[in-house]
Amino acid sequence: MLIKRKEMLAVLCCVAGCTLAEPAYFNFFGSPVRMDRYLRNTRDLVSSQVVRKPSLRGGQSLELTFLFSEKERHGNLVWDVAPRLVKRVRFSVFNPNDSDLAIKLQVILSDTQGRSWQPEPVILKADDWTEIEFNLAGCRVAKGKEVLDASDAGEPVVSRLTFKFEVDRYFSEFGEPVSLVFDGLELF
Amino acid sequence: MSLNSSVRLMQNINKLLRHAVFLLIAGCAHASVPTGEPFEYKPPVAGGEEMVWYLTDWGDGTWTPSSHGLAQFSPRFPRVWKTPGRVRVQPRAITLSGREIPLKGQTLQISGPASFEEEALIEFQRSTDSFPKRDGYIPQDVTLKFAQMEAVDALILKKDSETPFPASFCVEISTDGGRVWNDIPAASWNHFPDPGENSVRIPLHGVMCDALRIVSYNTPPVDHRRFSLRLGDIRVVRGERLFDFDDDPEMAADWNNMWLSFGPAENEVLHHFDGWWPNDRPDEGGLLGIGSTIWAHWNAMKLSWLDDPYSDDYFEKTVNKYPQDEEGLMGVAPDGFLHLGHSKHYVTPAIFISGMSYWVLMHRNFEFLNTRDEESGVALIEKLRKAMRYQLEILDGKSGVLTIQDPAHDGTAAGLGGNYWDTWRFGYQSAYANLLFFQSLEWMARLEEALGHAEPAAEYRALRQLVKTRYNELFWNEETGRFAGWISKDGAMADSGFTFVNLEAVAAGVASEDHAEQVLAWLDGSRTVHGDTSTGRDIYYWKIAPRANTLDAAANGYDLWDSWTMKNGPGTIGAYGGQIQNGGHIFYVSHYDLMSRLRTRGIGDAMQRMEVILDEFHIDQLHRKPCNWHGSTHVEGILREFPESGLVPLFYLTGILGMEPAAGGLILAPNLPPQWDFAAVSKYRFAGKTFRIRVQRGLDEPNIEGLNIFIPASGTWLLTPQGEVTRAD
């Protein structure tokens, strides 16, 4: 069963590889380049480190460790990129925790015109991978407090991605280390 | 025409002939270019919001890529043509999302004798992963190992005959045979087009390594399910090591590479395609300089000995735009008198004097002093003298203590910051301003002496003695055994354990011998200052430099800390240890740390510190930028707006070779570490000539062979502008 699943994944990847454009940006953590040149951990996200497993692609992924606090209830992974045009975003997050530790992920892309682009937030699957893929055209676009019409906003030149991992007030493990695994990022 | 004018004219002609730089901006229909001369091609800008990198097809089977940057700028591609003929140079820009922008090309008529001199190539052992991978995101590389440590000028790649050229690849180096790899920031590309039969020539600017690899983090497909990195012929062009000495090759390589990163910054990603501020995340790395008055002295120290006509021109144009008020106070930048619209900097006259004197004494272009401010029309020499008068009269420096009478800068809890360390309320009688005043007196004395004015030079030097005496009386805190930062108008001594004040004071020679030793004992942790937040080994928590201050700013609330940009205290963005000015560090201070140790305890102590710094550089080339809880990356001040980081590797010249300009020429007072037999610099511009200077143990007398200068390892020597060497001690 496992072999069949792997083969199916390989075929799917191959098909995807044949039809998708080359990513405008990717990072699967293989580079020796220090992560702190690109990534910042803030608030309740207290550390990140490159690990070999679990990993879907690239042979490596980024383990994120949170110490959620009642005061903040969120931690951010801030990903700085040299400005580039982005139409679509794809990445995966593995949540090894039980379903009673619900963690919500809100992605926010910032562009060079000071606009923010937000897809719908996602509740990460428990004890599983969540693949997240969205088109910028379907995002909520705002500049300051003003909400813009996405169809008029054109294609953004993105300079920063913020991944906000959030828990609710009933979260049962405040102050305890909680891990998530980020599998790498592709911008198309 | 005066003698100076004649000399200046000849220097200009020589400069033009020497460089013979033919900078072409596309748009000219044809251009004639001589063989054998340095040549630069600058493509038209691509334009647009997205960042781009440029690729020049030279029309002779060679491509050269640039690193990426803002599309409103374009790089300068240097080249020396060897054979005459007609070529069509065709540039293009590639956006970071992979869109190609064709740009207008240029036809070149290259004329002159052909050169058959071959480039020196480095031999290597080549290895690569034999098996394709099923995952394109698994990194693959082609590794080249050299027989010894080498300086590499360029890497030339050809496409493999059967496998696609990688669209994504970068170049990484190792200085320890392949145990630790570091990337070359500027040598990284996505969406690289198929070069076909062309050679891809990647400039590496003399980076030193004993192993080099081409890595792809997104390898090309070799069939419908496998991915592999394959390359054709590879050549590695040998360069010349700039700092050459007979210690551990790994140490020599790291030292050279540290200078390359934080000195000329040629292998960094530069958003304007030159080494001058600004640059931004996530490409922040080393820079050459910042055009502000605050950096004038550091810029001069870094740039004045380099053969970089473009930056010389930029710097000279910039310094002639620094505003000066009627009394003589300087503004902080060409486009603003106040620092970020917030405060005056009363240290600007001192920095301006020291920087300009250093610059002129290095270049010996005294005519430059007669160039006039673009706005005011005042000659540079007059601005310098006015700045000195401002210090002596308005700030009462002639009394031996510079005092800032501006009520907004009175050093009290209501005072504004007034120098580079802009969150601290340095004001009224500032130890930082006074040590810079002390330095400026010597630099102005040297300049006046060089201009034949012995009297003011003697007066400035006499005043220095008084300043030194008063400095050690006024600013020394007996309780803590170190210099305070300032004395407020209320007479309160502000002492938060300012390491940057103390080290620069010791390095400048304004500290007495006893005070200098006490300062180092405090920093080394052999003497504990009770009540400090950081003591013992924790003072060097950041390893490459001491914490900026050893007593948390929060200990004094906002009495000493000007919260105009951030608050301090637990949980704030300025909390101790999470901010460069409060428990963090700025790397340049290590230059003064090294010079302090050299001056006080000798070269052995300085080298122990330098070895710690080099060990850290070896790990990641100090391209580190941690953030604090709030996401602010102002924790360690190494990259981006800190081009003064280049002062640390510059210790090789200022400390070990003991070089600094003086009225009569260039002083060399070498301090070779005991285990070194020689220390050399292969290219050193001074007085319009490029010297090769070598300090050699066992030599009793200097030896001069044209522009090759050999200096004994002991004694103090003077290299004259004419290229002679005389004893100076």
Q: How would the blueprint of this fold be written?
A:
The complex is a heterodimer of chains A (188) and B (729).
Chain A: H1 2-19, E1 25-27, E2 39-43, E3 45-51, E4 61-67, E5 74-85, E6 88-95, E7 104-111, E8 116-118, E9 122-123, E10 128-135, E11 140-143, E12 146-148, E13 157-166, E14 177-187
Antiparallel strand pairs in A: 1-14, 2-5, 3-4, 4-14, 5-13, 6-10, 6-14, 7-8, 7-9, 7-13, 8-11, 11-12
Chain B: H1 3-19, E1 22-25, E2 30-34, E3 38-42, E4 52-57, E5 62-69, E6 77-80, E7 85-95, E8 100-102, E9 106-111, E10 125-128, E11 140-159, E12 169-174, E13 182-189, E14 199-216, E15 231-238, E16 243-245, H2 249-262, H3 296-303, H4 309-319, H5 348-363, H6 380-394, E17 429-430, H7 431-450, H8 454-474, E18 476-477, E19 482-483, E20 486-487, E21 493-494, H9 499-508, H10 513-524, E22 585-586, H11 589-601, H12 603-620, E23 636-637, H13 647-656, E24 659-662, E25 665-668, E26 678-686, E27 689-696, E28 703-705, E29 708-712, E30 717-719, E31 725-727
Parallel strand pairs in B: 1-3, 2-9, 5-14, 22-23, 27-29
Antiparallel strand pairs in B: 3-6, 4-5, 4-7, 7-8, 7-9, 10-11, 11-14, 11-15, 12-13, 12-14, 16-26, 17-20, 18-19, 20-21, 24-25, 25-30, 26-27, 28-29, 30-31
Helix pairs in contact in B: 2-12, 2-13, 3-5, 5-6, 5-7, 6-7, 7-8, 7-9, 9-10, 9-11, 10-11, 11-12, 11-13
